[in-house]
Amino acid sequence: MSPIEILSGARELVREGWTQGTFARDSNGTACIVLHRDAVIFCVIGAMVRAAGGMTAAWREAFAAFREPIDGPVPYWNDNVSFEEMVAHFDETIATVKSRIPDTSGV
Prior knowledge:
- This protein is mostly helical.
- The chain is built from five helices and two strands, in the order H-E-E-H-H-H-H.
- It has helices at about 5-15, 45-50, 55-65, 75-80, 85-100, and strands at about 25, 40.
- Strands 1-2 form a two-stranded antiparallel ribbon.
- Helix 1 packs across helix 2, helix 1 packs across helix 3 and helix 1 packs antiparallel against helix 5.
């Protein structure tokens, strides 16, 4: 799985259910482990871990790109932004990562 796939998957997960104050929640709103089958609501880090299936090398690349422009810890940022700001940041990060991929279509 590529960093773009992880970021895109995480973006969809948080659009379906975003939380603050913990990495993941079940459908009752109870905090739970990100990779648990009952986890359905995620913070940005939890969503990236879930989309990647764990803290893989690609997850580290995706996370590094996501946090690059953030001033301070990502959990603090997640807990102090609006839903709209969070989704916009995913969109910006995905665009930035895509722009770093060399165009090989003419090769």
